Amino acid sequence: MATIKIDGREIPFEQGDTIIRAAHRAGIDIPHYCWHPGLSVAANCRMCLVEVLPPPGRPAMQLDILRWDAKKGDYVPARKPKLVPACQQGCTPGMEVLSSTSEHVEEARSAVQELLLLNHPVDCPICDQAGECRLQDYWLEHQRTGKRMQQEVVHKPKAVVFGPTIVYDAERCIICTRCVRFCEEVVQDPVLSVRERGNLNEIVVSPGKQLDHDYTLMTEHVCPVGALTSVDFRFKARVWFLRSARTVCQGCATGCNAYLDYDPRNNTPYRHRPRDNEHVNKYWMCDEGMLSYKRAVENRLTSALVGGEDATIEDALDAVKEQLAGFGDDASRVAIVLSAQHSNEDNYALLTLTRTFVGAKNLYVSGRPLGRGDKILMSEDKNPNTRGVMQLAGSMAPKPIAALLDAVKAGKYSFVIALGSELEVDEKEALGVLSKLKGLVTIASHDGPLVRAAHVALPAAAWAETDGTYVNRQGLAQRSEPALRPRGDATPGWDLVTRVGKKLGYAMTFKSLSDVRRALSAETRTDGGANGAARTDADRAATKPEVSA
Amino acid sequence: MIKRTAQTTWTKPAGGPVTGKPIARPNRTAEVQAYFPEFVRGLAVSMRHFFKNTKEMMLGQKPDPVLESLEEGVTTICYPEERRPYPERFRGIHRLTLRDDGSPRCVACLCCSTACPAQCISIEAAEYPPGDSKRGYERYPKTFVIDELRCIFCGFCVEACPCDAIRMDTGIHAVPYDSRDQFIYRKDLLMEFSGRDGSRKSANPRHEPGDPTHPGLSRDHMEH
Ligand code: SF4
Ligand code: SF4
Ligand code: SF4
Ligand code: SF4
Ligand code: FES
Question: Does B130 contact chain A (CB < 8 Å)?
Fold first, then answer.
C-alpha cells in the first residue's frame, strides 16, 4: 500500500484520501474544526494547516512576508513556506508532511486559534460545550497566549431558536459549516445556510422553515463549539461530572452505537450521543434515539406487583408459584412470550426455562408497534432485538402477539410467562383477552399493557442498568454496557427468570451473567450459520477503538 | 470465660509489705501556715488589674491586641467583646454577589463546586423563565447551597469563579450554632451578605445580558 510520512512516521493511505483522513485512521491527531469524517470538505477553518515538503530537488513554495523584529523595532522582510490545509490536500505516494514538528505550522495554528477567538464571547461559564469544546482544547494545545485585540468584540444574535430542539448562539459560532453540511448531505434537508461575510457571518434557517427534521440533535453534536445547544440538555449538567457507558440505542432495530452520559452521583442519565461505528450508524443517531435515554428512568417498573399491588420480590415469587401451580405438567396450556425489547441474555434465560423445564412449544414475541422509518438510519421496527429473538428461538419460530390473543380467546392457554411490557396491538382489546388467563407472569423493565394485565409482574433492570447483547437488523450482535445502578428493586431479567424457574422447582443453573453468556455462545456455536458469524463480527465492532472527530 | 492470670500493676500484691520512700514534709513556717497575708497579697494583684483595666478602658489606652500578643507571657482578650483585627485577606463566610438589578451574578457554571476540595457546594442550574430579559443568554442557580460545616475555608471556590459571583469578604467569622442544619447556607442567605465594607459593587463590571449596555443581542443591533 502507498504511504505518506507525517512527522517522520510512515502511514498508509487509500486512493483518494486526504492527509487528515489518513492521519485520523492512523490515530494521528491533526487539529481541525470544519473537517468531519462523515461530511464533505469545506476547508474554511484553517486549523489543520500542515507543511508539505517539496519533492526532492524542487524548491519549496515560499511566501514573502514581513516579520516584526523587536531589536530593530521594525518589520523586516522574511519568507515562510506556504502551508496547506490537511483536510483538503490529497495524499500522493511518498509525500512528506510536517504537522507538529514544523515551527511554521505551530505559528499558523496559534494564529488561526487567535483569529477564531477574536470575536468570541468566551461564554464558557454559561456555555454547555465547556469541558468538551474544541476552542478550549486547542487554545491550551496550540495558543496559550492572550488575544491582542483590545476592542469590544463584534456582538451577534444570541439564543436564536432554530427549531423545537436547537438554540443557536451566533457569537460562539466559528462558521465551520459542519451543521450546514450535515443537514444538506446526510439528512438532505438543507434548512441551514450562512449569511453575511467576515466577522458578521452567522448561520440562519431558511425563511419560513424550521430546523425540525429527524436529526436535529446531530447538528448540535457535530458543532465543535457551543454555538448550537440542545434544548433538552441545555443548562442541565456539566460534562465533566458525567461518565459515559458504551450502550446500544434502544430506539429501533438499527441498534446505533451510543454513549450514555450519566451522573454517577445522582444515578441520572443526561444524554445519548453517537459512538462511531462504520458498520452500523457511522457517526450519526436520530433525534428519537438520542432522546431515548429518558426511557432508562421514565415509566419504569421499580417494584414487583402482585395483582397490581406493590410487593417484595420474594412475595411476588411465591405468588408466581401459586399462580402457575395449576398448569401441572401440561405444557400445552402455557404460552411463552419473548421480548424484542429485552436483551439476548434475558430472552435466552426464558427460552432455557421454556425448553428445558416447562416444555412449552408455543412461543410468541412482544414488542413495540411499527413506526416511521427512513433511508438514513431509522428502522420501522422500533425494537432493538427482534432479530436476536428470532435467531435464539430458531426453529420454534415465535408468533406475533395477535396470534397469542386469538389463541387465548379460543381458550387454548391458561398460563402465560412473558418478558417485556409492550404490545403492538390495541391495549384495551389485549387487556380484555388477557384477563381470561388463569396466570400471567410478566418480567419487564417498564410499565405497559403486559404489566397492567399481569397477575404478577417482576421488575427487570432496564438496558441502561445491565449488560446485554442486542442483535440489530443487519444481524450484528452488539453489547451494551451498564451505566446506572438499577432503580428500586429492579434486577436483571435473566436473574428474575432464573429465580422464577427455581421457585417452580427447576434446577436453573445461571448464577451470573457470564453463565448465561457461556451457555448462549455455546449454543449459538452449535447452531452455526449466520448467527455465530455475526457475533464475532459484532465483537469486533464493539471493541473497535473509538475515535471522535 | 477469660481467666485472670496475673495481678495488675494497679492492685497491691496481696499480703506484701508496702514499699516506698518517705518524702520530707515542707517546712511549715508561721508565714506559710497563716493564710491571711497570702489572701491579702492575692487580693492586691486582682485589685491592681482591676484598676489598671478600668483606667485603660476609661482612657482608651488598651494596647493593640496584635502587638500585645507579641509580648512575652500569656495574654488574653475578652472574646467576643474584644477581637483581634483580621488581616485584609481574611476568608470569612461566603457571600454571593449581585448584579445591579439584584439578580445573582452566579451563572451556575459549577466551577466552584468542581474546585471545592471539601465538596460542600451544591448547585442546581436553571434557565430564566420565559419573558425574562436574560432568558436564553444566561442561566442562574435555582439552588445554591454551601455546607459551612464541611468548608475548610481554602478559598478555592472564590479563585475558581469566573464571574466574581462568590466571595469570602464578608469578614464574618464562622458562627457557632447549636445544630447542623444551621450551617447549611442557602442562596437567599448568601445573597444577603455584603462585603466587609458594606459594598456590593463588583470589582469586574461587564456588560450583562439583558442590561441596556449589552450590545447586539438581536439582529436589530447589527450596524458594525
Ligand atoms: S464555545 Fe467553547 S470557548 Fe466558546 S464559550 Fe463555549 S465553551 Fe467557551
Ligand atoms: S453552528 Fe457550530 S457547526 Fe454550525 S457553523 Fe457554527 S460552529 Fe460550525
Ligand atoms: S472555601 Fe474551599 S472548602 Fe469552602 S466552599 Fe470554598 S472551595 Fe469549598
Ligand atoms: S459561584 Fe461562580 S463558580 Fe460557582 S457556579 Fe456561580 S458563577 Fe460558577
Ligand atoms: S479542518 Fe481543514 S480547514 Fe478546517
Answer: no
Residue-wise pLDDT for A213-248, tens only, equals: 999 999 999 999 999 999 999 999 999 999 999 999
Q: pTM of the predicted model, to two decimals?
A: 0.86
Residue B158 contacts A, CB cutoff 8 Å: no
B215: which chain A residues are within 8 Å (Cβ-Cβ)? 152, 155
Could you tell me which residues of chain A have a Cβ less than 8 Å from any Cβ in chain B?
Answer: 124-126, 130, 152, 154-159, 167, 199-200, 234-236, 238, 240-241
Q: Sort B82 into a burial class: Cβ within 10 Å, 0-12 / 13-18 / 19+.
A: exposed
Distance from CA of A316 to the nearest CA of B (A): 39
Choose the closest CB to A158 out of B109, B110, B136.
Answer: B136
Q: Is B111 on the interface with A (CB under 8 A)?
A: yes
Q: How many other C-beta atoms are found inside a 10 Å radius of the C-beta of residue A534?
A: 21
The closest residue, in CA terms, to atom 8 on ligand 4 is B109
Q: Which of A155, A199, A234 lies closest to B221 in CB terms?
A: A155
DSSP E strands in A46-150: the ranges are: 49-52, 62-69, 74-81, 84-85, 96-98
- Tell me the C-alpha distance between A117 and A182, whole Å: 24
Cell numbers 475515535: residue: A547
pLDDT digits (tens, 9 = 90+) for A107-128: 999 999 999 999 998 999 999 9
Quickly list DSSP for A148-206: ---SPPPP---SEE-SSSEEE-TTT-----HHHHIIIIII----EEEES-GGG-EEEEP
Angle at A477 between CA A475 and CA A483, to 5 degrees: 140
Hey, is the C-beta of B224 within 8 angstroms of any chain A C-beta?
A: yes
More confident residue, A416 or B62: A416
In angstroms, what CA-CA distances link A466 with A124, A254, A460, A483?
Answer: 35, 20, 10, 7
Per-residue pLDDT tens digits for A323-374 = 888 776 788 889 999 999 999 999 999 999 998 888 888 899 999 999 999 9
DSSP label at residue A537: H
Give B116's contacts in chain A (Cβ within 8 Å).
Answer: none
Backbone angles phi, psi at A543, to 5 degrees: -100, 5
Closest to A165 (Cα-Cα) out of A308, A288, A40, A41: A288
Q: What is the pLDDT of residue B17?
A: 74
For residue B144, pLDDT beyond 70 = yes
pLDDT at residue A270 is higher than 90: yes
Say how many Å lie between the CA of residue B125 and the centre of ligand 4: 10
pLDDT tens per residue, range B1-52: 555 555 556 666 666 777 788 888 878 888 778 888 889 999 999 999 899 8
CA of B96 to the centre of ligand 4 (A): 9
Compare CB distances from A238 to B110, B127, B214 and report the shortest one's residue.
B110
- E strand spans, chain B: 95-96, 121-127, 139-147, 166-167, 184-185
State whether the beta carbon of A19 lies less than 6 angstroms from ligand 5: no
Task: Name the DSSP letter for residue A90.
Answer: B
Cα R_g (chain B), whole angstroms? 32
Compute, in angstroms, the gap from residue A461 CA to the centroid of ligand 1: 37
Proportion of chain A above pLDDT 70, given as a percent: 95
CA gyration radius, chain A: 29
Q: Write the DSSP string, A488-530.
A: TT-B-HHHHHHHHHHHTT------SHHHHHHHHHHHHHHH-HH
Residue whose C-alpha cell is 461564554: A123
Nearest by CB: A235 against B125, B162, B214? B125
Chain centroid, CA B174 distance in Å? 3
pLDDT of residue B140: 94
Instruction: Kindly report the number of other CB atoms within 10 A of residue A465's CB atom.
Output: 22
Q: d(Cα A167, Cα A190) in Å, to the nearest integer?
A: 17
CB contact under 8 A, A238 and B162: no
